[in-house]
Amino acid sequence: MKVTVKFFASLRETLKISQESVDVPADVKTVAELRHHLRARDEVWAEALAEGKAIRMALNHEMVDGAVPLINQAEVAFFPPVTGG
């Protein structure tokens, strides 16, 4: 499965990336599992997407919780709860 992942506000600045195409491993089936998968990249990713951090998630422009299943070719967005304009 392949998804486009977008990062906004402070996440974009910390991770130094605004979006990327990700080949999702077969065992990653939900938005929360994708977040966990991305955290495994290195310490910066682990800290930015840490389990205890308040991070909002969206799937195809709709706010979701982590239990929502991923969809092939979907857009997944991660952003802090309050973003400045």
Structure description:
This protein is an alpha+beta fold and 85 residues long. The protein has one domain (2-79): Ubiquitin-like (UB roll), CATH 3.10.20. It is built from three helices and five strands, in the order E-H-E-H-H-E-E-E. It has helices at residues 9-15, 31-39, 43-48; strands spanning 2-7, 19-23, 56-59, 62-64, 75-79. A five-stranded mixed sheet has the order 2-1-5-3-4. It is globular, with a radius of gyration of 12 Å. The termini are far apart.
Summarize the topology:
Elements: E1 2-7, H1 9-15, E2 19-23, H2 31-39, H3 43-48, E3 56-59, E4 62-64, E5 75-79
Parallel strand pairs: 1-5
Antiparallel strand pairs: 1-2, 3-4, 3-5
